[in-house]
Design the sequence.
């Protein structure tokens, strides 16, 4: 009798628990974000990561992620240099285009930052980039900024 009652109880548990309708919320939006802002922690005192690169690196490619459904056509997104976090001079210390393209049926774009070799002048400069997006794709509020710190080697000591 106990076995029959146990089996009957299990059958009831499975019967009533298997039919519970789950209404999970679905997000249907889309945003763009810097991959480095997702995988790196923010630098001290700011809300974005700082990536250190040498002035001899040439080009730094930053991945931009599309978070949401793929698009059926190319999406051109814009980004800007934020003056409050930038000490470098555009055209001298770095060059950016201001746009990146997410190809149709893709999740990624590349922001290219060209860093010319300014020689051994010492110190470092910063460039803070912020995604703006476009009419269809807003930037992710938490992952829209990345700062590059461009280091320059010190000049040789006199007489060395």
Sequence:
């Amino acid at each position: 009798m106990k076995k029959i009652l146990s089996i009957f109880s299990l059958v009831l548990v499975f019967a009533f628990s298997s039919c519970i309708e789950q209404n999970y919320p679905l997000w249907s939006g889309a945003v763009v974000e810097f991959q480095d802002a997702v995988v790196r922690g923010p630098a001290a005192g700011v809300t974005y990561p700082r990536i250190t690169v040498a002035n001899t690196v040439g080009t730094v490619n930053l991945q931009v992620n599309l978070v949401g459904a793929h698009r059926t056509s190319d999406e051109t997104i814009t980004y800007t240099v934020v003056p409050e976090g930038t000490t470098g001079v555009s055209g001298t210390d770095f060059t950016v285009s201001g746009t990146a393209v997410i190809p149709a049926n893709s999740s990624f774009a590349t922001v290219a930052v060209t860093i010319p070799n300014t020689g051994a002048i010492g110190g470092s400069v910063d460039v803070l980039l912020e995604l703006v997006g476009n009419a269809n794709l807003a930037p992710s509020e938490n992952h829209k900024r990345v700062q590059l710190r461009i280091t320059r080697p010190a000049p040789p000591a006199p007489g060395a």
Remarks:
- The helical segments are 2-17, 35-39.
- The longest helix spans residues 2-17.
